[in-house]
Design brief:
alpha/beta, 246 residues, 2 domains, single chain, 9 helices, two-stranded antiparallel sheet
Amino acid sequence: MPDTPRPLSRNILFITPAAVVFLLFLAILAFISSSSGNTVKNIILGLYPLTSANIVTVSGVNGINIMVFFYAVFPVSVLISFLISLAARSAIRNLNAPGLKATMTICAISLFFSVLSVQTAQRVHQVSGEIRTFSGKTPEEKKTLLFGATYRFAELCLARLEGKHKALLITDLRPDISSLDHNTRANLSYHLFPIDIRNILSMENDCMLIFSRTKPDFDKDMIKQFPDIITFGEYYGIALKKRPGS
């Protein structure tokens, strides 16, 4: 009478690829922890240092994206699991062990849930921190926390200038070089509305806005054109052709 497949051995072999993935995933976290000097908890919680609607950054180890280490688990786990399957087939007759395709599928699904669990832990940590930070705050306080000097400067400008205006912006922001400066300028333009700093309105500049981290460079023509300067800080302010109501 021919031997029949052994269900217990078969189930164990189908679980093996998942176990290999989880063990390798934990080994990768331990390796990153020892290489970076951080705990596994800090690595997971710091996986995405900057997360917003427009940009997501991923932490790295020695300049290498941390996700590279995670994805490297897949080919290694497939190879180890498939070799275990081949060894089991040769040792146990008529064993219905998973083939290469099934092994790859199990490893892919296991890796997906491994990465998902890490990402979910980081997201929960981030959201819980935001709830603690913004709970009980007014919309204005929330915007101040989110945008800082950009929002405060825009609010001060809008308090001085009512209605539509076209402004000449004097700034040391370099949106063509720095993505951070690009985002700051975009936020500034958004919060200043309806004051136009993007040269959209078909009208002459009727004011000048100074938003700079270093001493701005004015020429004599600018000072003559906008003689009345209202400062909000060392390098922040409004320059007007004439004061409103004068």
